[in-house]
Amino acid sequence: MLSLEVPQFSSNRDLGHNSRILVVEDEDIIRDMVVLALEEEGYEVVSVSDGRSAIELLQSESSSQNSGFDLLLLDLMLPQINGLDICRLLRYQNNIIPILILSAKASETDRVLGLEVGADDYLTKPFSMRELVARCRALIRRQGFSTQTAAPMRRFRDITLNIQECRVLVRGEEINLSPKEFRLLELFMSYPKRVWSREQLIEQIWGPDFLGDTKTVDVHIRWLREKLELDPSQPEYLITVRGFGYRFG
User: Which of 16, 98, 103, 185 is disulfide-compatible with 76, CB 3.0–4.6 A?
Assistant: First the structure.
């Protein structure tokens, strides 16, 4: 069953200072305990119980003077609009908010599907609040690190990556990338020809707190190829180095 203890971490709660999290969960007890655990860590938390309310709230935030949300916790089985459709819509609109899916669907197929439609991480129910908070902290920290340390522009052959605007042009046309796809491409373009193992990519992009498996990397590489390559089956940019990992160019 769901672990309901509120975690008491020894780390500084300033990690959560000013970070805003939207929780979308239709089960009252889970939603209430998630909100409590995150607020105990210093996060500002807003919660809704259905998909339509989540979309309306996200759209109103983006069109207002508010700073928006730093993280979205998203159940899949929601009334009105399900979580997968919310992910698809946000990524189609080029919204790069980090998304952590919370779902009772635990199969590999379900996890891969969630990542493919744009989620950054996937946590299966039942889960402990301690693990949930750790994953939230990791996603927010990685997002903040990428924003603060990025140089303004990367170029390689027909690809231009504008870090400040979170835009990518491929052969003169803009493409939409998920946050993890964007950060992977930025890393590859920063070190062309370097070979990266799956473990190194997990460390650089997902961070040391990531609790998933390396298949996540393969999913994101495949989706990047479909958006970058003229022929994804014969890639010119994202090259597989068998037995080692991947390189760019």
Answer: 103
